[in-house]
Amino acid sequence: MSVIVVVAAVIVDPAGRVLAAQRAEPPALAGGWEFPGGKVDPGEAEEEALVRECREELGVEITVGERVGGDWPLSPGYVMRVWLATLASGTPEPREHLALRWLARDEYYDVEWLGADLPVMKTVESILPAD
Question: How far is Cα 113 from Cα 131, in angstroms, rounded to an integer?
Fold first, then answer.
């Protein structure tokens, strides 16, 4: 059985804030918060998919950094792969989301993370500098 890979970007700004995106759809996930990203197209490299998804969803160019963890389980047949990233150009806008929010360290859990993204946030919190 083949697995569908979904990529996600933990975009971190120079102040150490993390960008969270509020889902607009599907109805079962709408209103929950996630890291932006999406499915990898056939023949597309994962990092290329991440850059493309951020361009489409947020209107920004990103620089992909180090990978966060291994394969994060989603629904059956899907895995999420996550990378740290920084903005190379542009200002994020919610083209496909209800809202975007920059979260400082003391705000990381002020949003209701989707079940798949919450463990990623906990890992990111442990690897980002605490200053």
Answer: 23
Q: Distance between CA 20 and CA 9 in Å, rounded?
A: 10
- pLDDT tens readout for residues 94-109: 999 999 999 999 999 9
Q: What is the pLDDT of residues 39-66, one digit of tens each?
A: 999 999 999 999 999 999 999 999 999 9
Neighbours of 106 (CB within 10 A): 7
CA distance 30 to 66: 29
Q: Judge contact between 41 and 49, C-beta under 8 A.
A: yes
Q: Is 62 buried (19+), middle (13-18) or exposed (0-12) by CB count in 10 A?
A: buried
Residues 50, 76: Cα–Cα separation, whole Å: 21
CB count within 10 Å of CB 16 equals 14
The torsion region of residue 117 among left (phi > 0), alpha (psi -120 to 50) and beta comes to alpha
Place of tokens 């991440």: 50
Amino acid at 3: V
Selection from 65, 3, 7, 52 nearest residue 34 by Cα: 7
